[in-house]
Design a protein that fits this description.
alpha+beta; Thrombin, subunit H; Pdz3 Domain; 6-stranded antiparallel β-barrel; 6-stranded antiparallel barrel; about 15% helix; about 35% strand
Length: about 350
């Protein structure tokens, strides 16, 4: 089991480049400009079902997507509660501002008050006052995403308002550091500076994530990352309620089990999460968990996948006691731990 844990712990680490929320000037280069002869108008080409669906989603959701302007630049936000005028965006978009400019697709401009920001998750909530309810985007279920699903991003890259890009879910639960216990959605939909804080949508027009960062390398195209909406929503609710927003820390790296992995390594179960590595000073290690342990329950709730564990921890706070059921070498163990606070 320890040998299996060592294999799980071996992975490459990518550098993270935050998608800054700012505009940039556009430069045009070239020599002489030539214009071709007028082209005769052509008959409209029938749109495919997929095209029609993207058009429908954009028309439906884009009124809820806003441009956010601060003293330091531009970014994007999405209205999640039209009656209360609540807008979800990135913490790095609002920066340290307490007031921001908010511009809608309708060109309506309002002043927004920053209710709060949680920088560790990169989430902020802005509130605007409007005489009538604002258009709001429906929220989806990021816990049920599958790789290959269609994604649609709407935002204001480089200050170009209401830009739409499409792609797929390239990966789920993408973690970039050993202290990150809740992963990103990775997408190949183009995300650039200014998209930050905007919605990542599914094919039904539901918000599944908040675009937040891009991974860049000299030899690769930018890989977009979005905060899963379930994670963003849980922290946004705390900000809106004025509650103390703190992030829990367990101190483990883990992977979800599959039947194929279980067969390959002759594991006793095919559901659960396997601990690959622990922070020696973290709560999990201090409680007695080891690499190779398979977590199957938190309290009375089953842990079938890594997303189950994240969902269960989402409702906890630093200092809360937790009880794990774990398998180690064919034995079932009960491990008591107390959640720490992420720094």
């Amino acid at each position: 089991m320890r040998e299996f844990a060592k294999k799980l712990a071996t992975f490459g680490v990518c550098s993270l480049g935050l998608g800054a929320g700012f505009g940039a000037g556009l430069g045009f280069w070239g020599g002489k400009t030539s214009f071709s002869a007028p082209v005769k108008a052509q008959a409209a080409v029938a749109k495919s079902t997929d095209e029609q669906n993207v058009i429908r989603v954009v028309k439906s959701v884009s009124p809820a997507v806003v441009l956010i302007q601060t003293e330091s630049g531009l970014g994007t936000g999405v209205v999640i509660d039209g009656k209360q005028g609540l807008i979800l965006t990135n913490a790095h978009v609002v920066g340290r501002s307490t007031r921001v400019g908010v511009r809608f697709k309708s060109t309506t401009e309002l002043t927004g008050r920053v209710l709060g920001a949680f920088r560790e998750i990169d989430i902020a909530v802005v509130k605007v006052s409007s005489p009538k309810p604002l258009p709001a985007a429906p929220l989806g279920d990021s816990d049920r995403l599958e790789v290959g699903q269609t994604t649609i991003a709407i935002g204001n890259p480089l200050g170009l308002e209401q830009t739409v890009t499409t792609g797929i879910v390239s990966a789920t639960n993408r973690r970039l550091s050993e202290r990150q216990e809740q992963g990103f959605i990775q997408t190949d939909a183009a995300i650039n500076p200014g998209n930050s804080g905007g919605p990542l949508l599914d094919s039904q027009g539901r918000v599944i994530g908040i675009n937040t960062a891009v991974l860049r390398a000299d030899s690769a195209e930018g890989l977009g990352l979005a905060i899963p909406i379930k994670v963003a929503q849980s922290y946004a609710q705390k900000i809106i309620a004025g509650a103390d927003v703190r992030r829990t820390y367990l101190g483990i790296e883990y992977v979800g089990l599959t039947e194929q992995v279980a067969r390959t390594y002759q594991l006793p179960v095919s559901r659960g999460v396997v601990i690959a590595r622990l922070d020696p000073s973290g709560p999990a290690a201090q409680a007695g968990l080891r690499p190779g342990d398979i977590l199957t329950k938190l309290g009375s709730s089953p842990i079938n996948t890594d997303l189950d564990l994240q969902r269960l921890l989402r409702g906890k706070s630093p200092g809360d006691p937790i009880l794990f059921t774990a398998l180690r070498g064919g034995r079932t163990l009960t491990i008591k731990a107390r959640l720490g606070e992420a720094r």
